[in-house]
Amino acid sequence: PLDPDADPTDGALSEELFARARRVIPSGVNSPVRAFGSVGGTPPFIDSAAGALLRDVDGREYVDLVGSWGPMILGHANSLVVDAVREAAGRGLSFGAPQPGEVTLAEEVISRIGPVESLRLVNSGTEATMSALRVARAATGRDVIVKFAGCYHGHVDALLAEAGSGVATFAMPGSAGVTASTARDTVVVPYGDRAAIRALFAERGHEIAAVITEAAPANMGVVPPSGGERGDGVGFNRFLAETAHAAGALLITDEVLTGFRASREGYYGIDGAVSGDGAWAPDLMTFGKVIGGGLPVGAFGGRADLMALLAPGGPVYQAGTLSGNPLATAAGLATFAQLDEHAYKAIGRASSTLQQLVADALTAAGVPHVVQTAGTLFSVFFRDAPVRTYADAKAQDTGAFARFFHAMLDAGVYLPPSAFEAWFVSTAHDDETLDRIAEALPGAAKAAAQ
Ligand code: PLP
Questions:
Q1: Residue 229 pLDDT > 90, yes or no?
Q2: Among the atoms of ligand 1, which is closest to the Cα of residue 69?
Q3: How far is the CA of 156 from the centre of ligand 1 (A)?
Q4: Is residue 7 included in any domain, yes or no?
Q5: CATH of the domain at 420
Q6: Closest atom, ligand 1, to C-alpha of 165
Q7: Residue that terminates a domain, selected from 338, 361, 384
Q8: Do 373 and 321 share a domain, yes or no?
Q9: pLDDT higher for 410 or 1?
Q10: Annotated catalytic, 446?
Q11: pTM for the whole thing?
Q12: Looking at the structure, do residues 376 and 242 belong to the same domain, yes or no?
């Protein structure tokens, strides 16, 4: 551990570690966006974190707006979560046998999300979406999956075409190493394009197993679905459910990122409630991030008849040595225990304040920008018109973002190192933290304007 009283160095230790990392780890990182490829520079190597703050190995401190890309909704090293993990660790790290925490965690998710009647735990969001696709294909006896450009569902072969997140950050069309036959079974549609969906179903409806969509896309920046939340007619997700069901296909809503963050009941809590009489529901849903409280967890669930297809009761094989790990369920449960209405109010307040601060600073510096939200989630696009599709998102000024990003980092604020990501706040983002961000913003906005 670092000496907390030592003077920060100028980043020399991070530089040295990154050089060592690049010799033994591809591009020096275990997940692409961490390499700072699109913004340039050396990523700080993190030594420790507490509340809303990160501290790097050079002793520099940052207000964190990444939150490990979503899980750290209570801030870092939340004492109740850490205590729960410590207590669980004392009773054994993994059993490979049923344990009570798995049941309680499934009950917690099911109690919050109406369409989830049955849930299985996995180790990542990627595993969750991969498994949900398998269930959908088994249930329908069909092969084709429909996804939207700019939506990211993890690094599942079938879902990498025109994906968001790191694939967007590095402007990749998809991924090498995905077979032509896999790619053929995935149809990509522009986000929000109802006419394209209608035309696709008219032509190939009988081949389509499922449509998968982020409940509210947040991996090309935040692009809320049309309708629903804003009350202008049938929400896009409801439209997808109705169109898919009319053709005997399924709808999978991916709430890995939005789940238990956009609201207490995830994005479905916003969209399902206002999209009419609540009669619409996805068939399957996927979760991750928040449900593991910072440990590696994902989950997929939905209609009991579909989930009953899973082995050993049914013919769809799906398994995991560490699935339902006792430390992971302890962290998830200790997180859920603190995620009450009060917590969501605090997150909503911090999110709104931050949105206003950023918009004011960018406006004052004359930097074109749009702030978009989905519940308490938000992101900032460096362009002057609303973003409704991946093509819109790609039309932003990523150079301005990179200058803004580095000026914020130099001033002690750690933003997602990509213009295509949501900004993550937590219950630990109190007034003092927000003041620190407010101080950094005018200088960063000026840097973006250059
Ligand atoms: N789905 C969505 C909507 C995500 O945002 C992510 C990760 O960012 C995933 C799936 C994949 O989750 P994981 O990185 O845990 O595999």
A1: no
A2: 8
A3: 10
A4: no
A5: 3.90.1150.10
A6: 8
A7: 338
A8: no
A9: 410
A10: no
A11: 0.96
A12: no
Tell me which of 219, 252, 420 to substitute to probe ligand 1's pocket, judged by most ligand atoms within 8 Å of the beta carbon: 219
Say yes or no: 208 and 282 in one domain.
yes
Residue 323: inside a domain, yes or no?
Answer: yes
Domain boundary among 309, 338, 367: 338
Q: Is the pLDDT of residue 279 over 90?
A: no
Cα 369 to averaged position of ligand 1 atoms, centre (Å): 26
| 55 shares a domain with 90 | no
Q: Is 431 a residue of the active site?
A: no
Asked if residue 257 has its Cβ within 6 Å of ligand 1, the reply is: yes
Name the residue at shortest CA distance from atom 9 of ligand 1.
154
119 occurs within a structural domain: yes
Taking residues 203-216, report their average pLDDT.
98
Q: In whole angstroms, what is the distance from residue 155 CA to residue 134 CA?
A: 15
Same domain, 72 and 160: no
Q: What CATH code is carried by the domain that includes residue 178? A: 3.40.640.10
Mean pLDDT on 22-33: 95
In this structure, the answer to whether residues 323 and 195 fall within a common structural domain is yes
Expressed as residue numbers, the domain containing 161 is 79-338
From the CA of 126, give the closest atom in ligand 1: 16
Active-site residue, selected from the candidate residues 58, 64, 254, 283: 254
Give residue-wise pLDDT tens across range 425-446.
Answer: 999 999 999 999 999 999 999 9
The domain total for the chain is 2
152 is catalytic: yes
Examine the domain organization and report whether 72 and 119 are in the same domain: no
The model's pLDDT over 247-274, given as tens digits with 9 standing for 90+, comes to 999 999 999 999 999 999 999 998 876 5
User: How much is the pLDDT for 181?
Assistant: 86
Cα of 122 to ligand 1 centre, how many Å? 12
Give the atom of ligand 1 at the shortest distance from the alpha carbon of 289: 15
**Res. 237 pLDDT band, cuts 50 70 90:** very high
Q: Which residue among 147, 152, 418 is best mutated to probe the pocket of ligand 1, counting the most ligand atoms within 8 A of its Cβ?
A: 152
